[in-house]
Design goal:
transcription regulation, transcription, LysR_HTH_N, D-Maltodextrin-Binding Protein, domain 2, HTH-type_LysR_regulators, DNA-binding transcription factor activity
């Protein structure tokens, strides 16, 4: 395989575009004789002439035109890549960009960010609140450095680090409380149920469990956020099925939190990153704080 120094390729491109070794020498800060010698070096490595020398200057041979077209396109692609990396580096300078699942953004993330700001008062953190599936595009486009939320299976370009297991729970008002220490989903079939909408991972998990048991819930309220589900359940309108992370550690008076009894009634929470990415050094610290907070939170439950 022929291996040619990129600096020589650059000299060749300038000479081809200027049609003159003299003008190429001026642009590249070389002497005309040095440019001529470097072109001869490329021609010797390839084994064919790249230029025709004339009294008016130089013109590309057919073989030289092939090299010019290929090298010009390749250099253009490299320049686009370097420009993109420059924008990414500028955006990261002093800033951390992360995406977070809504339930975590409303519960654990605020305390984590407060502690982080105390440690690094000059830091700036940008947060985008999105679903796990939507986060994939943000990661691939490098709009965020990492995502905090539930696992999203079957992602070939994404790495998921499991940190803590989050149970599926029922948030039960007193008027619908059967008094059991744990509940199966089938126990709620005749009760008004409040659930998150079908775009959420927790709704998909719940319906998969129900399908396996050939059961269906009486869903009276379908909402977009866990906060709305909590408010409706607190008002006595039904039992809310939610991820454990979404419910308050200490429930309000007249409310009870009960785990759903099923082997699959749980999901992993953790950190998603793009394969091969190199996080900002502050991002590594913030990810460590996320890991520590989630582990402590679930250990205390």
């Amino acid at each position: 395989m022929i291996q040619i120094n990129l600096k020589l390729i650059n000299v060749f491109l300038v000479a081809a575009e200027q049609r003159s070794f003299t003008r190429a020498a001026e642009i590249t800060n070389r002497s005309p004789s040095a440019v001529s010698m470097q072109i001869k070096e490329i021609e010797a490595q390839i084994g064919m002439a790249l230029f025709l020398r004339t009294q008016q200057g130089v013109v590309l041979t057919p073989e030289g035109q092939i090299l010019y077209d290929t090298a010009h396109n390749a250099i253009g692609t490299v320049e686009i890549g370097l420009e993109r990396l420059g924008r990414i580096a500028a955006a990261r300078n002093g800033n951390i960009r992360l995406a977070c699942a809504p339930t975590l953004a409303a519960t654990r993330l605020p305390d984590i960010l407060v502690d982080f700001k105390k440690r690094f008062p000059n830091s700036a953190v940008s947060v985008i609140e999105v679903s796990p599936r939507a986060s994939v595009k943000f990661l691939k486009d490098q709009m965020v450095e990492f995502y905090v939320g539930p696992e999203l299976p079957d992602q070939t370009d994404i790495l998921f680090e499991a940190v803590a297991e989050d149970p599926l729970v029922a948030f039960i008002p007193q008027n619908f409380d059967p008094g059991h220490p744990v509940l199966a989903l089938k126990d709620l079939c005749d009760t008004p149920v409040i659930m998150l909408d079908k775009q959420t991972a927790i709704r998909s998990l719940t319906e998969e469990i129900l399908a396996g048991e050939a059961q269906a819930l009486n869903v009276q309220y379908e909402v977009h956020t866990a906060q709305t589900a909590l408010a409706l359940a607190t008002g006595g309108l039904g039992i809310a099925i939610l991820p454990g992370i979404a419910v308050p550690t200490v429930p309000p008076d007249g409310m009870r939190i009960v785990r759903i009894d099923h082997p699959r009634a749980r999901r992993w929470l953790g950190i998603m990153t793009l394969k091969g990415s190199a996080p900002h050094r502050y991002s590594e610290t913030l990810m460590d704080m996320v890991r520590l907070d989630l582990k402590r939170y679930y250990k205390a439950q």
